[in-house]
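<discrete_fold_record>
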Amino acid sequence: MRSPARVALVLLLAAVIGLPALTLTWAGVTIYRAGDLSVEVSEPGAGGGDVHVVLPAGLIELALAVTPCRVIPRQAREQIAPHAELIGELADALGRLPDALFVAVDRPGGQIRIARHDSHLLIRVIDGERRVELQIPSSTLGAVLRYARAAAS
């Protein structure tokens, strides 16, 4: 025989255990689906070195989801405000853009490339032996732009 107190206790335990489990599952799926953000910097010479950092881009999206816009300094929000509509349009367009090379600048000893490939925005700058490469998922960049637009409003 089941007493109402026992049923209530079982339901309470299910909620206490189930809610965090669902939250962690949602966070894990969000992080996995967002892909990776990659930054690579190569600076030859005595003071230089190579740095390659790969982060789950979903961490950025989760941080944006739980960070209120009011933490952005007022001065930054005021600088963004005149461009808020354009920022929103760019955020929406990022997901619809086809894979393409947007910017290609070549000169002796260097190059700049900005492209979209496999749902990532790729930026590569080479200057002699120095190199910087950034790869960010379009969805993450869109989330950052939407956050900036919301902060400016």
Strands lie at 36-43, 49-56, 100-107, 110-117, 120-127, 130-137. The mean pLDDT is 87. The chain has two domains: 1-34, 35-152. The two ends are 58 Å apart (CA to CA).
